[in-house]
């Protein structure tokens, strides 16, 4: 339950504070109003669906507001949320996941009662969190849709999962929050909203510190060398450095070694006498550190923004497990069948950011009505190429097993002396009478990160070609469709949404 408390003067009209759940730190309420300069780090805890078609029930929301310059928490808010039916929503699997029981949420307010606080906190601010694009943002939108209210809209998005994977690499394994916390010796993840967002902020600081030091120190003075020297000096003085995180008992030797690569290095830097400072945001390198994180924030605009309605189910290549990909076959009519590609029993839909356009829209190919088939050719990264080639091979074998005599056309084609993998993204049109419109959402992303949907009065291949120029970057959301027509078979990538980056 949320409790009312703040560093500012108490609001006499505020409701009487309710106690926080046993074992949890009290949650403070945030100042009213939306659209402030602070970054809103947030996290939701939900039920675990137990059957096909069952959605997620929101059980807890927690957030902190962070000063974007000093990276310190300025306010916080957390509340449990009572689902419509706690008995069916909170299963044993759900309790194992986050520890939130039916009794805990039975006395909590329904989302309708806390929606104003959540809206004021999030609307118009930069949102930040771990995997918020794919999961947390989608749950917030669903919660507002259930009560018939428009959801809050972010001014920007910082998803630390793809961002840190891109900038920090996979040093911490799967880059989940629990793995990152273990890597830096921050303790175990509790899977409670307020604890997780605070851990998220600390992980971001630690990662930025490592990246800053690696970019700043001479190659011979590696972070690892400095750390080992600092530990040696500390032990020679008769005590271990209090800044060295203690590796957990279940950590591997390699991971425990990695855990010593952040805080001690500050104390090992020559001069400054600031060895007692372990908080990267308050060290003498704070200006450079904040600048580096600001650069990370700008780079995060290249990550997928799937928060727009209808695109939260599109998966990035690294989220795909090929063992869960299968070909589903269903009868189409008396003598035919329809094949589709599924991932975990749902139609496979993919998204990938920053694809480079190789060839713009061409009018070379026509459909049966004589209209040009619109498509663009883009370079794709290796992780996407592997997923698509796996799907292509699986669908090809399925086609052969069905006794198809059609020639299979490979999905991924390679060009250039470096064998660069490319694919063709199809832009379908919807014909109504004598007019036609694009069925693909086509948007443009400004350098500021704002995305605007483009409105076209009619289908114009020339206008589209001027938008998708060679060398431009595009974020693509697309589905995979298997075709077998006129002795040709293969997989067609159908673009559902294309976001062109403005230069």
Going by helix content, strand content and strand pairing, the class is alpha+beta
Strand content: 15-25%
Alpha carbon gap, first and last residue:
47 Å
How would you characterize the largest beta sheet? Answer: 5 strands, mixed
The coarse overall form would be globular
Number of strands: 19
Q: Secondary structure elements and their pairing?
A:
Layout: E1 39-46, E2 58-66, E3 73-80, H1 86-89, H2 92-98, H3 102-106, H4 111-122, E4 126-129, H5 132-146, E5 156-159, H6 160-168, H7 177-183, H8 193-216, H9 223-236, H10 253-258, H11 263-268, H12 286-299, E6 325-333, E7 336-343, E8 346-347, E9 349-359, E10 375-379, H13 382-401, E11 407-409, E12 413-415, E13 420-426, E14 429-432, E15 435-438, E16 441-445, E17 451-453, H14 461-467, E18 473-485, E19 488-501
Parallel strand pairs: 1-4, 4-5, 11-19, 13-19, 16-19
Antiparallel strand pairs: 1-2, 2-3, 6-7, 7-8, 9-10, 9-18, 10-13, 12-13, 14-15, 16-17, 18-19
Helix pairs in contact: 6-8, 8-12
